[in-house]
Amino acid sequence: DIKGVIFDLDGVISNTSRLHNVAWQQVAKQVGAQWTESLSNNLKGVSRQDSLELILQAVPADHQYNEREKQELANDKNKHYLRLVDNMTKNDILPGIVPFLESLKHNNYQLALASASKNSSRVLEKIGLSHYFSEIVDPQKLSKGKPDPEIFTTAAKLLSLKPDQCIGIEDAAMGIQAINAANIFSIGIGEQDILKDADIVFENTNLLTLNNIREYFEQREL
Ligand code: G6P
Ligand code: MG
Questions:
Q1: Residues lining ligand 1, judged by CB closer than 6 Å?
Q2: Which of 12, 19, 20 should be mutated for ligand 1, with most atoms under 8 A from CB?
Q3: Which Enzyme Commission number(s) are listed (predicted)?
Q4: Spatial distance between the Cα atoms of 77 and 46, rounded to a whole number of angstroms
Q5: pTM of the model as a whole
Q6: Is the pLDDT of residue 222 over 50?
Q7: Beta carbons within 8 Å of 68's beta carbon, 6+ residues apart
Q8: Nearest Cα residue to atom 16 of ligand 1
């Protein structure tokens, strides 16, 4: 029986995936990296340092950035991102998420947050959703990021649940890999093509309802 639901944040609960993009695009422009749809998709779910590396790999010139310069670029991105977060309101919650969280609470599911973002608590506070989550994984305490399963395995442990008692929800291909590697049932939010390894894919968060999930479980007789 499913008892817990583990959420990614950016692009699942809030539209911060877009805000991360806006801030990274600025860095890309600054270093002369070409911003593409595929670069933007590859950044989803990836830590700040690793995201910067991916952007620097897309720079045609062979200038090598030293650690200090990289730190500066990462700091600039975060300052820009936090300015955008400061202006967030409840309107930045993705559609259907509040009713979904409410229905999970009413049905006594336990909720955890498994975001790679060091800003996740701040974002949850800004949009007023902190109280729904009994556990928030601290990504700074992990040794490996998504697609490693560690963040989802840790979330399940914090909820005192086994992986097969949980569902994980992600918008990033890397995140789906991480959920699957943790042996947790995976739900992808977005394009089927990108999230093809997920157990179920919903095109958008409006379709994320307990009924839709249950329907799937009944069909599969899980
Ligand atoms: C999430 C987002 C990424 C972001 C990463 C680190 O995984 O999907 O876009 O780069 O968190 O976020 P942070 O707020 O710590 O820079
Ligand atoms: Mg995400």
A1: 10, 17, 20, 43-48, 51, 78, 115-119
A2: 20
A3: 5.4.2.6
A4: 14
A5: 0.96
A6: no
A7: none
A8: 48
Nearest ligand to the CA of 39 is 1
Instruction: Give pLDDT tens digits for 132-147.
Output: 999 999 999 999 999 9
**In the sheet where 135-136 sits, what is the strand order?**
135-136, 110-113, 4-7, 166-170, 185-189, 200-202
CA distance 44 to 29: 18
What is the residue whose two structure tokens read 């157990």? 199
How far, in Å, are 130, 169, 181, 203 from residue 190 at the CA level? 24, 11, 20, 5
Find the 190 Cα to ligand 2 centroid distance in Å.
10
148 given a catalytic annotation: no
Asked whether the ipTM of the predicted complex exceeds the cut of 0.85, the reply is: yes
Instruction: Give the pLDDT confidence score for residue 43 in this predicted structure.
Output: 96
- Annotation says 10 is catalytic: yes
Query: What angle do the packed helices 48-57 and 16-31 form, to 10 degrees?
Result: 40
